[in-house]
Amino acid sequence: xxxxQFLGRTQRSQDVWEYFFQPTEPIRxxxxxxxxxxxxxxxxxxxxxxxxxxxxxxxxxxxxxxxxISDTPSPYKQRLSQLQPGEIxxxxxxxxxxxxxxxxxxxxxxxxxxxxxxxx
Length: 120
Fold this sequence. Notes:
Strand content: 25-35%
Distance between the termini: 27 Å
Strand order of the largest sheet: 4-3-6-1-2-5
């Protein structure tokens, strides 16, 4: 796992926040992939790790994900809301194959999901 230093968060809508991190070493991934994010000091019966789709662009040095936080958040999301700049989370190797081929002349179908992601 790679350590991520928390940089800050931006509110994207009433209950959606995007979280930004500086990795301690480069993370290689493709747009559309997801990763496991762990909070070491979290006490939660469901565990210390959750999976989020990466919302940052692969060629930028900052890693980000977006999350919906309800009025009654889980312990994980409560802890996310309390993060202060400089605190550390950990990320596993990004994975997932919901990505487009690099080179092809054929048209690609559009896939819609109910997850949260930026429009860039």
